[in-house]
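Ex. 9. Protein: PGF-CTERM protein.
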Amino acid sequence: MIPTRVHATVVLVAALCLSVGVPAVVAGQSNVTLTVTVVDQDGDTVSDVDISATWDDGGPVNETTRSNGQALVDVPEGANVTISVHDEDYVRNTPLVIQDAETGEVDVEVAEAGSATVEVVDAQGPVGDAKVEIYDGDDRIADGRTASDGTFATRDIEQGDYEVRVLKEGYLRNATDLTVDGDVTHEVEVQQDSRLLQVTVRDDHYSPPQAVANASVRVGGRGTVTTLSNGEATVQVPVNANYDITVTRDGYETNETSVRVREEAESANLTIQRTDAISLDAANERVVAGESVRVTVTDEYGDPVSGADVAIDGESAGTTNDEGELSVTVEGAGTHNLTATSGDLEATASVEGVGADGDEATATASATENETGTETSDFSGPGFTVVGAVVALLAAGLLARRD
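Predicted structure tokens for PGF-CTERM protein:
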């Protein structure tokens, strides 16, 4: 008779053994059994092939095909199940996906394993960092970049026919046929080439936009060119590459864009506008003291700026009307400073105040004499000046002698 403690231990060990390799079943979820049959390219079953099943966030369930090429796999009912093959001799390029799993039979086709080493060269020798893609019809089954020696090696792939596509910046694309019937080496020669890139720069403040001449166009890695009167600039650039384009011009905002030049001439259109600014202009440079002068405030395109604040010698003179205009009184002779502000923008100008006779110096001198208390002549009257008074005195003296 087996002791009770030993019996309990045997039962526990048996329970643990049964749990190993058995997928956990979520409470309330039922499983279905997939009968998976692995067949080769001729339709013959293949035994001793390791397979695994995964689904959503579950699995893996690992099985090995028996002598009849079959394996039984339990998975959750309705799950999307992925069947992968792990074998040294047989492979699948892509796993098999089963939608909404239910009990039934599933054929998994495999092929004998092979591999390909692609060597990319040009007229000078190996080409490193070239992109290599291997396609089976529309399916890309391998891709990567060549090492410094110009080579790229695939993982194990199905033996069969493929297309190799090679792409490298500055080189023409190259597509060649590839047959994998074991471990093969395939050489691909690529050729450097360039195409014309035309950049057009226009000012879209106008309708329609107007060409911008003398703008600097910087093409990443290829230097800077200047637009002609039609706003166009051209540069020769290597094919199959991306380029950053930056446009600048004094008085204009900078604009940038990117363009990919493939194997035909390419164009890029950029628009720029003038940098925000205002200008202040007075209708006259010289104004009779006490009179008004008309000032006009315009933006960077010469359009009127309404509501701009205008000051003269730091004192507010008012705001511009819808035409960007304002009449400003010029008090006194001398230079007067005008300032216009609109938001963060500012502009300045100046006007000269002159006396009523049009001579600023005379008006200033007269004002100075009056301020210092200098006595004026009693001789007065229209046209009677100091010189006239002297002449009159001399004439009186001559008459006295005659008498």
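Check your answer against this statement. Helices lie at 4-19, 360-372, 386-402.
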